[in-house]
Amino acid sequence: MAQRTNLADISGSMRVAIPEQTAYDLVRYPGAAGHLSNVATVLSGLAEKMNPEALLELAPLFKLPDVQRLGYLLDLVDHQDALADPLAIWLNKRRNRHVLLRADAKTTNIEAENRWRVVPNEVVEVDL
Fold this sequence. Notes:
With 128 residues, the protein is mainly α. Helices cover 43% and strands 3% of the residues.
């Protein structure tokens, strides 16, 4: 017979990511997050809980293409003002290059005509 455990008797600790860390992780691992459309959908809700200063503080800990992709997706889900604008200013002080939105997909000469220098080689649809 299985022993029942009272949840009040269990103690321990658990590490929980802050919303800003989660945003970067979603962009870094889009396949695990359900691909880019799902990442954008999650970001649209998560953005309300994110702090622009914390987003900036974490930026140097990530590769520039991850920051570029996150900024691009934040613009896409209409959070360019408070969240993406400070990231864009920070990024413009670095030597960034054009990057593919979806790193594992090919492109056919699509222009990166956005402030993030991200080549939109995948259509991203946000489900609201």
